[in-house]
Amino acid sequence: MPISKIITYFASQNKKQSARATLLRNLQCSSLGLYRKKHKRAMKDKYIDLIEQTFDFPQDEFTVEDNELNFHDIPLMELIKQYGTPLKITYLPKISQQINRAKRMFNVAMAKVDYKGTYNYCYCTKSSHFSFVLEEAMKNDIHLETSSAYDIHIINALYDSGVIDKDRYIICNGFKRPQYVENIAQLINDGFENTIPVIDNKEEIDLYDDAITQKCKIGIRIASEEEPKFEFYTSRLGIRYNDIINFYKTKIQKNKKFKLKMLHFFINTGIKDTAYYWNELSKCLNIYCELKAICPDLDSLNIGGGFPIKNSLDFSYDYEYLTEEIIAQIKNICTRNGIDEPHIFTEFGSFTVGESGATLYSIVNQKQQNDRENWYMIDSSFITTLPDTWGINQRYIMLAINNWDKEYQRVLLGGLTCDSEDFYNSESHINAIFLPKLEPGNPQYIGFFHTGAYQESIGGFGGIQHCLIPAPKHVIIDRDKEDNEYYTRLFAKEQSYRSMLRILGIDGNGFSDRKFRNVRHRYESTGFLQREAGAILMPVLIQPRKRTQLHDPIFLSPQVIRHPEPRNIGIRRIIIKGFNLTEYVRCFIPSLTKILQENCLFIIIHVELCPPVIQIQGIARCYFVIHLAIDTGA
Questions:
Q1: Which residues contact 265 (CB under 8 A, 6 or more apart)?
Q2: Is the pTM of this model over 0.90?
C-alpha cells in the first residue's frame, strides 16, 4: 500500500501534510541509523582485519595468538626476545615434509596409470649447502645433485661422516672445468658407482675418458628452447636437440667405458601448466624414445626442478594435477612408441628448502619523505640478507610479527645501506605494503617467510657485505621426536667486524697486510726467515704493566726462524706453555684440518719476538713467530 494512503488513513485532512512529513522523516532516520550501524561494523581498520579480509587466514604455517604471529606453531616473539634481530631461522621439519610430499605425489601419480618406472628425489645442493639442511634432507632416503667442483668435497664429507653411502645417486650438472672433472672422476674411481656426470657440451666426454679408469654411467642434458619472451632462444646449458643422436653415435655408442643412462631436461620457467612447457616436454620425450631405440642402456629421464614455493598467502598451484599430468604424458608417449617408461629423477632445490626459512627484522625508524611516502627502516639490508628481492625482484610472504591489533597504513621498507635499490615496496598480490602504525615505546617487528633457498649463497654468507652490513644471526629450529616440543640452537652469530677486516687484509689492531709484508720482507732479505714448515706469524699487542695479549693471526707463514747466533739479531725468547691455539690455526693451516678433527692438542713450545717493536699511537706493537708442537695423544 502506498505511504500516502497510510498517512491519509491515520490522519485527518488538515494534518495530512504534517503526518506525511513526520513519517518520511522517521523512515529516513531509521534508514540512516541502520546504515551507520552497518558501516560501523564494517570499519575494520586493524592489521588483523586487513589480513583476514584479504586472505584465507589462518593458514597451515601461520597463526596469530595474542596479536603475535606464530610460524609452524612457534611464537616468533619468543625467538626475538631470546636472539634479537636481524635474525635468520630455519625450521628443519619443513624440509622433510616437502620431500615426503613430492614422493607421495609422484608415487600416487605413477600408481594411477600403472607406471612401471621408479621415482628418485634428488636434492639440488646449490639451493643451500648448509650441513643442517643436507643432514635433514638425507634422512629421507634421497639422492644429490651437484653443480661445481667444491660440491664433490661435500659429497666426500657426507660419506666420511656416515650420512650417505656409495650407492646414492650423485647427479653432476653444470659446465665442467678441469677441477670439477677431476673431482667427479675421483668419486667414480673411488667406487661411487651411481655417480652420473651429465654431459653439458660435446668436448666434456673426452675429459672423462682421460680421467676415469673404470666403467661409468653418464647422462646428456638437452639444450631446451626458452620461453618466447626470454632474452634468448635456446638455453646455454646442454646439447642441441638436433645434435644429440649424432653425438651419442660418434662419442658414446662404441666406447665401452661409458653407458648412457639418463636424458636430462629442464627449462628456466619451471613446471607450469602452459602450452610452452608441455610442448618442450613432448619434444624431450620424442628424443628419449629415439635414443632408447638405439641405446638399450638408457632408462632414466631427469626432469630437473621447477616446483614453485608459496610466495603469497593467496598462492595457488595444483601440484597434484601437474605431477599426474607429467607422469601420464610420459607414459602415453612411451607407450605410443613401444618403449618402457623411464625411471623419473627430479632435482628440487627451492621446493625442498625454501619454505623452511624466514628472516626477521625490527623497524628502527620511520621517515615521512613526502605526503604519500612513509618509510619504515629495517635494522639490516635487503641487498645483503635477501638479495633476490632486488636482483630478480623476488617477492616473499611479508607479515607483521606483533601488533596485529593496531591500525595499519601503507608504507615502504628501506634497508640500511646507502644504495638506492635497497628497498622493498610491494607484494606478489598487490603493488603495496601495509603494516601496523608505529607507536612510541612499542617496537614493531616484521618477518619475510619462505626465504630458505639461495639467499645465503648469493649474499655471500660470511664474506664481505655491501656497506659492511654484518650478516645476521642464524638459528636452527627442530622438534623433539618424543614430545614434539620445539627447540632452538644458534648456528651462527652475527658477523663480527674482525671477520670482515681480516678478509680485507686489515686486522683489529690497525695492522694492514702491507705493513706486515714490509716487516716480513725485511727479515727475509737478511736470510733470517727461511721457508720451512712450522710457524704462524701473528701480531701481538704489548701494553705496559699489562699481560701480553695474543690477537687473531693475519698471515700464515710456512717458515721457522733459525737463529744460529741469536745475540747478533736481538731475539728475545718467551716461554708460554699450555696455551691452546686450536682456534687460531683452524682456518690457517688446511693441511692440519684432519688432525684438528681428531682433537689433537697444540702447545706453544716458544714464542719468538721479531724486532723491531713499532710504536703506534703510544702502544708498542710487534710480530711474534710461534713454534708449535703437535701432540697427537698417541
A1: 221, 222, 224, 280, 281, 284, 301, 302, 303, 304
A2: no
